[in-house]
Amino acid sequence: MLYYSAYNLGIGSEIPLPEFAPADRGGDVEVRLSPPQPVTGSRSILWDAGSPVEVDFRYPGAGRFVVRHGRSVTIVPEQNVDLPLLRLYVQGMVFAALLHQRGLFVLHASIVQIGSSAIGFLGPVGAGKSTLAAGFHARGYPVAADDNAAIDLHHCPPTVMPAFPSLKLYPAVAAELGYSRSSLRIMHQSQTKRAHAITTGFHAQPAGLRAVYILDRGAPPAVRRLSPVETVVEMIRHSVPTRWGVAGDAPHLKMCSQLAGVLPAFRVRTFHNLPEIPFLIDTIAEHSAQFLAESEGSGQ
Q1: In angstroms, rounded to a whole number, what is the distance separating the alpha carbons of residues 96 and 166?
Q2: Does position 49 have pLDDT exceeding 80, yes or no?
Q3: Which residue ranges form the domains of the chain, and what is each CATH number?
């Protein structure tokens, strides 16, 4: 058994999960590997929205991943599947489902720390969430999460659990931001993005989430604050399980509304080409600094 830490959880795993932080012991989550079996049918997610204590991911060409009670993951691989492919599923969708089962609100987002507060970047696949997180990190801002952001709504402001010290970057983006080619590691032959281990500048403590920015290529140049109704829509669109096309239950939709009621959301036009990245980082850094200063001054 290998031991890791992520999302403030101790994890024991029978497969390597190298992006997670190494640990001395598990205790919260176990990842087990079962004998190979073929996956029949098409790609699917079996999710009982009324009681999602067990979620069954089925991916032909990879295997099955069964997540139970927020504590266990059982991997049933197809024959001759390599472990790096399995770990991509485990560290991504599978852990997102597990965190949801543990009562956390899981956003498809990247999170960076600005002073004592955290801000998040939301958007569809390819909108630039990881790129912005990496750009802020290159300027000295700590990163708290990339891809899945686990949020505890029992605190005010809502609290982001630290994920794991890794960023996923396209090589061209990494070069544009000043990351060395040697710092990038191939995650799997099927992936264009590369993993960059965060050796310094990972925010390993829970952080208060004070604002999110919705990245939109069709948005006007000016940063615009969303209405509460618009924010609810974005929370539903970018959270687990509705972002996968799986119907959310009443508690999930209530969490979307609860978060939208306390978390300011802003729409901002994302970059269209690599030279625009520094300008976008400047825009969000200046806007968030001003917003956070005003919020602290007003006691919000």
Answers
A1: 16
A2: no
A3: 2-102 (no CATH), 106-298 (3.40.50.300)
